Amino acid sequence: MYFPVGWPKYLSIPQDHPLPPIYIVSNRDRSLFAILTGNSLCIWFCKPCVEILSFRRSENSVSEFGENRTAEWRPDSSMIAITTSKGYILFYKVEEDENVGNHQSIYVQKDGRRSLPPRKATGDLLNGEGIPALKVSQLSYIQIQGGVTCLLCVRDDLLLSTYTGYIQRIRWDGCSNGQMSVNVKTVPFSTDLQFSRASTVQEENVNIPHMEYSPLLGGFATVLSNGRAAFLTVTSAKFEPHQIQGVWAQEVNNASCVGVNHKYRLMAFGLKNGEGMVYSIDEITGALQVSHRLAVSSKDYPDASHVVGSMTHIKWTPDGCALAAAWENGGFAVWSVFGALLFCSLGGDYGLSEDSFKHHSLHIKSMEWGAEGYHLWVMASRCDTSQVNGELPSDTNCNGEIKEENQDILQLQFVKSSLTVNPCMSNHQHLFLQGEDRLYVNNGLERTIHQTSPKQQLHPSQPGYPSNQAPSFLMGSKQWQVITVPSNYLGSNWPIRYAAIDRAGQCVAVAGKYGLAHYALFNRKWKLFGNETQEKDMVVSGGLTWWRDFVCVACYNILGQRDEIRLYPRSSKLDNVFATVTKVPSQVLLLNTFRDILIVLCADSHIMMFSIDRKNTQPNPTVEINKIQEVAIGGFIPHPASVTAITLTSLRTETASVRSKQPAVEAESILLNVAGRLLMFQRDRSLHVAVKDGSKQRQLPFTSPVMVASAVENVWSTPRLNSEKKHLVEALWLGCGAHGMKVWLPLFPRDDVSAHGFMSKRIMLPFRVDIYPLAVLFEDAVILGATNDATCYDTGPSDNLPFLTLERTSQIYLHHILRQLLRRNLGHHALEIAHCCTELPYFPHCLELLLHEVLEEEATSKDPIPDPLLPRVVAFIQEFPEFLQTIAHCARKTEIALWHYLFNTVGNPREMFEECMLSGKLKTAASYLIILQNLEKPIVSRQHATMLLDTALDHNEWELARDLVRFLKAIDPSDADTAPDLPPLTRANSMGFQGVLHRTPPMSPDSESNEFVFVTNPLRGRGSGKTDQVDGGKGKEKSKSRAESAALRRRSASGSGHEGSPDSFFIDVLLARHARKLLTSYRLKDVGCFAANMEGYQLVTWLKKERLRAAKVEDFVTALKQLHQDFQWPLPILTNSEFLQLSKDLSASSSSQGLLELEEGAKNMSVKDSGYLSSSTPVISPAATPDSPMAGSYVLLQPKLHIQSSRDDTSLAATEMSDDFGESTSMDQSYCLEAAELELLCHELANKGPAQAELQLRYLLHIMIEAGCLEWSLLISILLRDVMAVVRTVNTASFTDTQIEIVGRMREGLSYLEMWADTECMGYKPFFSAIRGQIQTLQKIVEQNPPNSRLSTPRSRSSSVEKDTPRPGDGSHDNMNNKLVEEEDEEEEERLVEELAKEQEQNSGYDCRIS
To answer: Boundaries of each RIC1 C-terminal alpha solenoid region domain copy (predicted)?
Structure first.
């Protein structure tokens, strides 16, 4: 609620002060601060923070009366009383210095070269806008016998206590009344005011060192010198000595300081052990009841009570919503009103040194809150830091301890939630904080709504605004939007007192000392009063809020001297002419809205409700406000100032009315937060209907209140209606400080239960939270909050305080509700709530949190649990499809020692693994492998991993398959039958699988699409992947060495595994089988992804081995279609010029049938006529026609147009051979260059696929050529329509020992592709015409071989090679040896696979029960 930000401000102390400051105190409105030293008095102004005067006492005065100790302001700021060390009280008069010009202002404001005189208001000293020039003069003094221990102002008198144990009352003129003094020993003390017996203090030399007065409590909170704490109460305001009675604060024997909260009726006592105790008064018995404790937990700072020392100071904020406490050994903390720790300086970042906190911690001597709680004035001392650098300070005592020095006056800056002073903001789902001159907004919708021009903006109240838009945690950002209030408003109205934001989060309004201003986020414009007199005549006193597009304020009219309620339209100028004004009989303390009803709380303890009706008048909208009801609550509250929040809701204690005929949109109840107790006033439904009185409808009265909860800081409700999430929307959320949060949840009857069999009701569910809640997102099941983050910057040896930043925090609360309902056997209601939240993306995480918290609590419990909750939680989670995932993720995040308890309730993990396999949840099954790894023998986990690997490969789960391969290779065969030791807490990481799941492979696929990206080539194996050249002797040597090392190649593992083991070979066989399966089905892209994700997989070597088996292409047309589909590559289309050229060719050849087909195809593709020819697609030059003599060797190519592009990647063949073709012929001069460029550009965009796919295809093209898979390289070249790649492929087939069957299949496949292009895809016809010469080259190669050797299978080919005599230099002898080796490898692979399969069948009966 209060959060420090930035660096502290250091206030410079004049050099003429030889003594350090010791005490600071502010006046009533916290605009002036008196700072005491031993012999001087300084008065500072709050804003700007400057020194007004410095009054130094003479040496004679110091020697006569003693040095200054404490001070106290008179309520009207006209006098200051100072206590001295010799028992005197000095009275000083504070008045304006008339000798100072510039309207008695000590500082002059300049606008350029011109000085602006401050405007002076009449009546009060501090009502002017300038900084007043003051002077101090001593009036009188009085000597107190025994010395003064503490001094405080009570109304128009001073109350002090002495070292002799007396409490005296003196006037400001220095006169003392002896009859009004009382001795502490004569005061009767008891534990309550009714039943206990009173007794006096019997100890000697007991006095009151600390005391504070509370007019709302009607007494004094005191700390006695013996360590006890008590509350002194009086029956009358005259403070008669015989009327004083004390009530002991039980359990307190070591009190050190005290602070009183008037608004919440609390008193906090600081203890010498570093903790604090906060008490409230029982209104029935008058006893002091413990509300909560103030302590720093071990999570925030370990052993804080042994480090910090005694708690020396306690100061409540001006609004009573937070408390600051300081310790003797340094440091301070801020708690909320009911004990939630907001900030603690003990855990701050003070540097890297171990003694950094000791030397840089703030030892606070005195502190005081500034105006509205935006500043904390601190008088602190810090130790010398020279010892940190290894030096010994010069001011150390004989014990070597460092003396405190560097007395500083610091000003800590704070921001606070708008809920502290404007609790009506609890209806909004925004994080909204306010500082002294700026606002902090965290609104995720600001980036998604209102992106049009300012003139087109729609406000939520206007027609056309999307009603389904609501703030969402998922759309929110952790970045704060800081809105600075303009200086022309805040310059004379500092600080911000009230701030409000509308429900859409697009409009904010602020109110300072006078007037108000509002701001629109969508157009970033402020609106201020044009008439400054109107601004100065209005003071916002009861808060402000937004109702649709109107600003509603409760204010005091200074000119008319009356209290009013005003509504200003947002769209109009900020002027009273456009305002709707309603008079109220007394001051408005609080206001709030509920749909179209305005509810206000007045100072006369009356609640008034008004109906608001918007009128769409022109040119500016107006509202009509009418009073509809008034409720007197004076008999139910102790004082109107104790009411901290008022809310009008449609909630009732019983939700049966929701299902009745009465609509749920009516205002059913009033919620009042009275000093932390939530009271609920409900309408009396005994009358059934509202009574009409004439033309008006008289509202139903309210019954006596019921107390819903206690220790309530904030209340959240929403007027939104959502039938799907009625449990969450109609719930009431309570923030209870150190007690966590509470939700008042409605319970609706089941549909199959009659109304008489079930009484609908509500249930209060408490739970703890890890953040301080500032907003509740009802439909998103999320709590939003804020926290501080400290960062230390090394700015100097003596200035090393951390820089504080503000961060947004969030927490899911759904699992807390489900757990509480299951604990109370309300599983049906838990299911209803859970089912309405299944669409939330973090719903599976909620189930994990639910299971994890219950498991940790029950499994680590030392005592037996008679009714465990875990079985109910497991049965509850089984109702959702995320059950298997929830169990696996929870187990992985839990210690292995708790798995026995978990799986005894959940079931056998092997069965859950098999269920995951059947349902296709492979990643969840992988999580269960980790569990089986630690609960079963390695042979069992290996068996399940093999099953999962095979399934993952079939489903193209490449990342999972890669991790499973690593997992299998990491299993030591010698430990296959060794049972795991339970519970080894680090065994989950010992086998490497858990860490493997998140490792990045060397050739990482895209996490989104699992595509392979071949930029570099670490997997190709350059040493063994080069194409064999025609060399007889070298070929024989290679064949012999390959035959001799066949066994070594079979057993070589491609990763970090156990080389030579059958398991490693079995993995390789499994991977090879899947690769064959992919390649035989023409899924070339999946083959690339497979090879990229399998670490160390030698794709080139494997393709060489399979080029006559799995890598052969039987159906070129089907393979080409599959490539188009897998790589999302469009089929080519014809341009107009290509169509005309083909028409001429067909006409010249008198092929009427072909011409008709061409025209028919052109008609079908007329829509896609605007295509292009890529830069790598050549056309046939007239010098290289198919009938020319050069057609058999090479083709002279020329590009139509070379388009420079960053992604223009031509093939290596085109790059290497471009210099051999000579110069290109020029284009026809009659051709229009601009039209050609446009046509080619459009053609390129239409015919080319994604850039990523092109990179992949070109990489695979190089791989296939290197591996000798010329059929695939030819298909890829055709897909890319790259003539150079086709030339390279044909040349490879011509100049290497390529098998004749491969060449035959290439030629036959091209013929089938030409037929397919003629009938189905005419866009390929120009390309096939361009490669006509290469087709003829393949035909010649085929014709040079015997006809019976063409297109034979690998078996027949190898047998024919055995019979035929090899020709010298053609490499057929090497091919024969390769075939023999491959057949031997295949037979041995099959034999080892059968052996491993038998071994797994023998081990499949292993019992997986948890031992």
So the answer is: 815-977
